[in-house]
């Protein structure tokens, strides 16, 4: 027996930048980048691997602004060990995001070569992409949001991209080995003090995954101003509307939704040695049903789930996933959970594994993924807590004859 479910709509929102090119141009003028760039200067524009809204348009606009200033911009991947930790793989990831020479008007220079540019006070070596190190300036473009691997005043953003993304595979492995929370700011400071970085464009998204804000920070502002932007991003991010759940069903995971496949801030699970687990939400069992095609077989984060399906397991490219997992050293996240043949079987098993709670009374929530949560499905027990939100009954959890969950089909 499965609980009766209701479709619920969360009221999410936030500001939105409607004209990306104009917003980027505004920021270049506001920070007087003309006085900071010498005509002919070669500038490496760093772009990452995340599914950031409007990322191709944003990078293209940045390239355009540097050209207006007479600079010679080119693009470098800044994604640590993503893309299988190969130059070809990282160029392919950027191309799939719409970032390629023909569209950007600037070449993409992808290489795993790095140079050591210094050491942190604790002796941790800091690496920088060789092409970026040979440029006359580095400008990073990244979304600021709470990170899924560590707690601290900086999460994903400009500081992390300088410290890890631009360090390629070697830099990524080095910092993960020595600890992220303490060393990311220190490593970024080494790069900034070396004079390589000329600035960065911070992207903040609203809870609809739309570009909400664009802010150009100068190098000496990364460590001081980014924490405030992180707080704003945290305020706007989508989250579950309740704190206690018996079974959370995630329809689909993937690198295009989160660096960990499923956002740890949504799940309330970190699984990183030395980092404290989030206090909320409190979820007894997590079931993930499928892997996004745009994750290209990389199921890093599958270890955050308790149960999954054979369909998902069959999609895993173990070589790509293990390269990513091993570079982080967070092995728990790469462990395969119990997997069953069908969605229906996995969900039934989860309901049996929550203790002496009748299925009809179970607190069950279904989400599409951990990024898109405006629409969700909740059981009767949870609906009682969400009386302020409009709810439409859909009956018992619906499955096809093949046992596949119909919700978010």
Q: Number of DSSP helices?
A: 14
The residue ranges in which pLDDT falls below 50 over 5 or more consecutive positions are none
Q: Major β-sheet, in short?
A: 6 strands, mixed
Question: Percent range for helical residues?
Answer: 25-40%
User: What's the name of the CATH homologous superfamily of the largest domain?
Assistant: LarA, N-terminal domain
> Which overall shape is indicated by the principal axes computed on the Cα atoms?
globular
Q: Which structural class do you get from the secondary structure elements? A: alpha/beta
From the N-terminal CA to the C-terminal CA, the straight-line distance is: 21 Å
The CATH topology of the largest domain is Rossmann fold
Radius of gyration of CA atoms, rounded to a whole number: 22 Å
In total, how many beta strands?
A: 15
Second CATH tier, the architecture of the largest domain: 3-Layer(aba) Sandwich
CATH secondary-structure class of the largest domain: Alpha Beta
Strand order within the widest sheet?
A: 10-9-13-14-1-15
Task: State which percent range the strand residues make up.
Answer: 15-25%
Helix-strand pattern: EHEHEHHEEHEHHHEEHEHEEHHEHEEHE
């Amino acid at each position: 027996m499965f609980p009766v479910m209701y479709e619920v709509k969360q009221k999410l929102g936030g500001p939105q930048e409607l004209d990306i090119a104009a917003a980027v141009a505004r920021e270049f003028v506001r920070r007087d980048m003309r006085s900071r760039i010498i005509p002919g200067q070669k500038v490496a524009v760093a772009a990452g691997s995340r599914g950031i809204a409007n990322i191709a348009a944003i990078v293209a606009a940045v390239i355009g602004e540097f050209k207006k200033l007479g600079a010679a911009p080119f693009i470098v991947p800044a994604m640590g060990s993503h893309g299988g930790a190969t130059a070809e793989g990282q160029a392919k990831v950027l191309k799939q995001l719409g970032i390629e020479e023909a569209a950007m008007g600037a070449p993409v220079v992808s290489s795993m070569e790095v140079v050591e540019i210094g050491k942190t006070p604790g002796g941790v070596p800091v690496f920088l992409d060789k092409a970026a190190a040979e440029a006359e300036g580095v400008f990073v473009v990244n979304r600021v949001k709470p990170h899924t691997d560590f707690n601290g005043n900086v999460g994903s953003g400009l500081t992390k991209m300088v410290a890890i993304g631009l360090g390629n595979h070697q830099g990524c492995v080095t910092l993960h080995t020595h600890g992220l929370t303490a060393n990311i700011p220190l490593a970024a400071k080494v790069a900034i003090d070396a004079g390589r970085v000329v600035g960065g464009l911070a992207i903040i998204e609203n809870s609809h995954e739309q570009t909400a804000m664009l802010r150009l920070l100068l190098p000496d502002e990364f460590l001081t101003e980014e924490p405030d932007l992180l707080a704003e991003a945290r305020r706007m991010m989508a989250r579950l509307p309740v704190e206690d759940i018996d079974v959370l069903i995630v329809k689909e995971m993937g690198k295009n939704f989160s660096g960990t496949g499923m956002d740890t801030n949504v799940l309330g699970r970190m699984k990183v040695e030395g980092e404290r687990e989030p206090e909320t939400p409190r979820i007894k069992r997590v079931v993930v049903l499928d892997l996004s095609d745009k994750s290209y077989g990389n199921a890093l984060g599958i270890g955050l789930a308790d149960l999954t399906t054979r369909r998902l397991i069959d999609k895993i490219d173990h070589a790509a996933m293990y390269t990513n997992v091993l570079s982080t050293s967070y092995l728990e996240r790469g462990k395969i959970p119990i997997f069953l043949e069908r969605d229906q079987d996995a969900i039934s098993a989860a309901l049996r594994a929550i203790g002496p709670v009748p299925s009809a009374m179970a607190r069950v929530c279904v989400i599409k993924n951990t990024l898109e949560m405006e629409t969700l499905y909740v059981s009767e027990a949870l609906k009682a807590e969400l009386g302020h939100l409009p709810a439409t009954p859909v009956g018992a959890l619906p499955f096809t004859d093949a046992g596949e969950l119909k919700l978010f089909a």
